[in-house]
Amino acid sequence: MPEKDELLSNPVIDILMKRRSIRSFEDKNIPQDVIDIIKRATLRAPTAGNQVFYSVIEVEDQQKKEHLARLCDDQPMIARAPLVWLFLADVDKWNTYYRESGSMEKGKAAGIEVPETGLGEFLLATDDALIAAQNAVIAAESFGIGSCYIGDILENHEQIIDLFNLPRHVAVATLLIFGYPKTRKALPVQSIRPPADAVFQKNTYTPYTIEKLRYSYQRQEEDARRKKKLPFNNTGSLADEYYFRKHTSDFMKEMNRSGELIIKRWKEKD
Is 221 domain-assigned? Predict the structure, then answer.
């Protein structure tokens, strides 16, 4: 059995351990041949039934990138990123394939009614898209290319639909921006994560106690207090920080509103 340090010397593990979100990029394009390899690596991601229930829009149009930046809580880094990929949960293409290839007509002849596209397919397609996105992140990192997930893409869904002409059974999964970091020397330390035994459970779900939660996020809270980032003049807890800065924020209200729209639109009857 290899020693722990030997296991950590695995180059893939090394990339995973060192990866962090990058929000500031050099004014330098990513070579097309590198982008092509990242695309190939993205497509090697696991996918439900090998159907590839996702599509990716590469946003090159600068006006669209700037509009996208505004829609995502005014984040100009999106407009400045050399490479912007919108990952979509896409069942529409399979519905078209079933219909145009004659599968639906064959089913009708066999007494099978055309089923409604449901939330099961929505979840499978979303899983597919997110798994593929992470393949892209790690592939890019292997070339020294940084990336950042943009969670705010889940807001303003009506305008995102219009901006990208999304059919009903194509839904936003995530947005990724890529580029060469401005300087790796100036990067801050990695974000702190909970210890493994605070997240991994065995055989059944055990609800978290306040003691377990404090253990889980102790290092993050200590770090935030050291940097004087906690609320109530730095006397509050990490829970206070996230509750007041995110959980009760206007952007979270908008994300929840938009999220409900995404699901409602998907479930609408033809």
Answer: no
